[in-house]
Write a structure and sequence with these properties.
Main location: plastid
Shape: globular
GO biological process, one term: chlorophyll biosynthetic process
Structural class: alpha/beta
Oligomer: single chain
Catalytic activity: uroporphyrinogen III + 4 H(+) = coproporphyrinogen III + 4 CO2
Order of helices and strands: HHHHHHEEEHHEHHHEHHEHEHEHEHH
Low-confidence stretches: 1-5, 14-46
Radius of gyration: 21 Å
Pathway: Porphyrin-containing compound metabolism; protoporphyrin-IX biosynthesis; coproporphyrinogen-III from 5-aminolevulinate: step 4/4
Number of helices: 18
Strand content: 5-15%
Subunit structure: Homodimer.
Length: about 400
């Protein structure tokens, strides 16, 4: 049996030999000159693992926080816009290996973040469990037949990973292309968030159908969430086996629930996923992000994940106090700061990093990159982060050993 590294190398070679001459697939020679310098600066580390993975585990002695951005690949980049103009179907761009690899690598070539996250969508695995969907330019995701009955839940199938081979192949190629210079991240949607689309039939501002099911058809909803938890667990393991080194779980719409309702209808299914991944992939850190999570931090920690992603409405220092030092944090610069003068952005990065402390922090935004974000600001974000050093930021100070607020 081939090792994961050999498998990735073989996959990359096969992909290149099969790619047409006009393919936009990138060569590693196109990477910017800053990449070798990053590699050299980290090569003195006692660990061969990427900085981001080590920070996610809360390791001591890291030189600086690693950084990446949610939605760092996508529509704010001119390079992506040009590709999307030639290939207007989002499903095509996110479900064909050559496009996935190219789009994923675009921000890495341009900005050299410490984390490279797969270009995909949280709904990508739905057809593999028997839920087809379309994407409308005006409405976003559309599920023609929402799942709202017991019979419909029974018709769902165990996830067919053969239908997701483009994800596995992309991760293998990306792991080879990145070559240890950054962490490769995969991601999934949490059961509740995926269920909102499946039940509502697409995007919603009110969530009335799924929220009412909590009380009008609780057994149906439990069956759906349980099925999704199993499928998502399988999908995470598949991503890990294909090369992902860290997984982010997006419970994007969990923040639309009152905390006690989230405790009942989202948290148990996330815990189910985390428990299984910790048994089968104990080396892979798990990040949990919820948009609007200020009222949920302590409950999020109880899921067992390694990292809590804070949105920008949570004060980083307060979040640290509430969570304690026993768990890593991610975030949480307001994406709007990327539209501010660069010195203002620099100050905000410093403020967030100092508030998070010199251990267990992954610098990120508090939400995804906004559509018209200047690429210059994104480059500045990562340049500033690379220049940071904990020993100078916290010179003469003693890190406070925080305990969770009771």
């Amino acid at each position: 049996m081939m090792s994961p590294a050999a498998t990735a190398t073989a996959a990359a070679a096969t992909f290149r030999s099969a790619a047409p001459a006009s393919s936009s697939y990138p060569s590693t020679r196109r990477r910017r000159s800053r990449l070798p310098a990053i590699s050299a600066s980290l090569s003195s580390s006692s660990s061969d693992e990427p900085l981001l993975v080590r920070a996610a585990r809360g390791e001591d002695g890291l030189p600086r926080p690693p950084a990446w951005m949610m939605r760092q690949a996508g529509r704010y980049m001119a390079e992506y816009q040009a590709l999307a103009k030639r290939h207007p179907s989002f499903r095509e761009r996110s479900e064909k290996t050559d496009f996935i690899v190219e789009i994923t690598l675009q921000p890495w070539r341009a900005f050299a973040p410490d984390g490279v996250i797969l270009f995909s969508d949280i709904l990508t695995p739905l057809p593999a469990i028997g839920v087809p969907f379309d994407i409308s330019d005006s409405k976003g995701p559309v599920i023609q037949t929402p799942v709202r009955s017991e019979d419909q839940v029974k018709e769902l199938i165990p996830i067919d990973l053969d239908m997701l081979q483009f994800v596995g192949e992309s991760l293998k190629i990306l792991r080879n292309e990145i070559d240890g210079k950054a962490a490769l991240l995969g991601f999934v949607g949490a059961p509740w968030t995926i269920a909102t689309y499946v039940v509502e039939g697409g995007m919603t501002n009110t969530y009335t159908n799924i929220k009412s099911m909590c009380y009008t058809a609780p057994n149906v909803l439990r069956g759906l969430l349980s099925h999704l938890a199993q499928a998502i667990s399988d999908y995470i393991i598949y991503q890990v086996n294909s090369g992902a080194q860290c997984i982010q779980i997006f419970d994007s719409w969990g923040g639309q629930l009152p905390p006690h309702v989230w405790e009942q209808w989202s948290k148990p299914y996330i815990k189910q996923i985390v428990s299984r991944i910790k048994k089968e992939c104990p080396h892979v850190p798990l990040v949990l992000y919820i948009n609007g999570n200020g009222g949920l931090l302590e409950r999020m920690k109880d899921t067992g994940v390694d990292v809590i992603g804070l949105d920008w409405t949570v004060d980083m220092a307060d979040g640290r106090r509430r969570l304690g030092n026993g768990i890593s944090v991610q975030g949480n610069v307001d994406p709007a700061f990327l539209f501010s003068p660069l010195p203002v952005l620099t100050d905000e990065i410093h403020r967030v990093v100092k508030s998070a402390g010199p251990k267990g922090h992954i610098l990120n935004l508090g939400h995804g990159v906004l559509q018209k974000t200047p690429e210059e600001a994104v480059a500045h974000f990562f340049d500033v982060t690379r220049s940071l050093r904990y020993d100078s930021l916290f010179q003469g100070s003693v890190a406070e050993e925080l305990q969770p607020v009771a």
